[in-house]
Amino acid sequence: MELALVLILLLYGASDLLFRFLGLGAYAHGSRRKPLVALTFDDGPSEHTEALLALLRRHGVRATFFLTGERARTRPELVEALRREGHQVEDHGEWHGVWRILLPWWEWQQMSRNPGRYYRPPHGLHTPFTRLFARLSGKRIALWDLEAKDWLELPPEALAERLLYYLRPGSVVLLHDGPGRTLRVLELALPRMLALGYRPVTLEALAPRPLTFRLALIRALQGFEERYNRRHGVRRAGLGPFDLFRLEKLPFPGPDLPGLPRGVPAFALHLESQRLMELTPFEAVRRLRQSLGKVAELVAQDPEVRLVYGYSYLAGGGKALGLKAAPLPLPVRLLNGLASAWFLWLYRGELPRPTRPLTQMAYLSREELLALYPPSTPASPPPVPGEGQSPPP
Questions:
Q1: What is the DSSP secondary-structure string of 172-189?
Q2: Complete DSSP assignment for 322-342
Q3: Cβ(167)–Cβ(160) under 8 Å?
Q4: Mean pLDDT for the stretch of residues 335-356
Q5: Contacts of 279 (CB under 8 A, 6+ apart)
Q6: Is pLDDT of 379 > 50?
Q7: pTM of the predicted protein model
Q8: Cα–Cα distance for residue pair 201/60, rounded to 1 Å
Q9: Which helix (H) or strand (E) element contains residue 100?
Q10: How far apart are CA 371 and CA 354, in angstroms?
């Protein structure tokens, strides 16, 4: 009996790990090549639905609402209003209680009572039966790749900054129709989102695709990236859809370069690989040039920074962007070579090849960077809203 109980718990745990935490096979984001995003609202309708509708209408935005059956039946006029204004209405189950999901006979009722092309489990929770029941009821499992965290008791301003920091082309954003702060978060973030070049659409218009193992792994690792950014004060050079660099200020670790000894203040460049992963080589070069211009603007604002640098097997090709390349000591080269091979497989699906160039350091001194990518002058247009912000604590 005890063994059977342990096996059942392991099965439930493995299902939740694979299908919620990783999101394997779920519909969690769209193409990274276009600045389309999907705003999705769980748990409605609520007393805030009309205000959310008014805000979306004011900005000409369509969204997707995952409704619970019992709440939808109490406010049919709001469900009709959602459809009338062009929003997508999908299934969030009959109830929102977690315990009803854990028992198979309740989970089947949870998923089969209401219509919908997509089903989003409450809290994203999965049991060993969730995917089977979804298939039997003709529904796709919809998750997300960015949580707005609007259920937390945090200032809406901090939540809006975080949303803009981590928003990517193709993102499916998890919001809630219920908390009062959701409306304020969107009032702050939505105009800036539009100004940055994002275009919110319904989930159907976004055309998400099921996550392969590699894409599911990328989704699962996002939390580690966020913790690293917060711990090390990493900031983005621009918050636009295709601003491709994050910057970490630290002492230059070497090797010594002419006029640039170890220990001088520098910006380490971190590539936003998810924004780059689906771009063609031509698109990538164009976006990298634009992004280095954003880096130059931040360097110009910090007189301490003496250079920018990063490690990549592509460092030699950085000459097309004006970057210089420097060899690395063997231990550093091997370590960064392994990291490059991992990221190349993770984000591009390419396996290591013997002919691939060795990892080098790409760099530019402060003077060279500002000469190649001169920052905007006072007569230039103002920067895009929210540019260069750091993630909130």
A1: EEEEESS-HHHHHHHHHH
A2: T-EEE---HHHHHHHHHHHHH
A3: no
A4: 83
A5: 32, 33, 242, 287
A6: no
A7: 0.92
A8: 10
A9: helix 99-102
A10: 36
With beta carbons less than 8 A apart as the criterion, state whether 165 and 391 touch: yes
What CATH code is assigned to 233-372?
Answer: 3.40.630
Which residues 6+ apart lie within 8 Å of 7 measured at CB?
none
Q: Which of 235, 236, 238, 197 is nearest to 375 (CA)?
A: 238
Contact of 345 with 351, CB cutoff 8 Å = yes
Q: Residue 344 — pLDDT band, cuts 50, 70, 90? A: confident
E strand residue ranges, the chain? 36-44, 64-67, 88-91, 118-119, 140-141, 146-147, 172-176, 199-201, 235-236, 245-251, 265-271, 307-312, 324-326, 360-365
For 191-222, b where at least 16 C-beta lie within 10 A, e where not — what string? ebbeebebbbbbbeebebeebeeebbebbbee
E strand map for 54-137: 64-67, 88-91, 118-119
Measured CA distances, 219 to 19, 24, 231, 259 (Å) = 11, 9, 20, 41
- Cα four-point dihedral sign 26, 27, 32, 38: negative
**CATH architecture assigned to 2-214:** Alpha-Beta Barrel (3.20)
- SS3 state of residue 304: coil
Q: Where in the chain is the domain with CATH 3.20.20.370?
A: 2-214
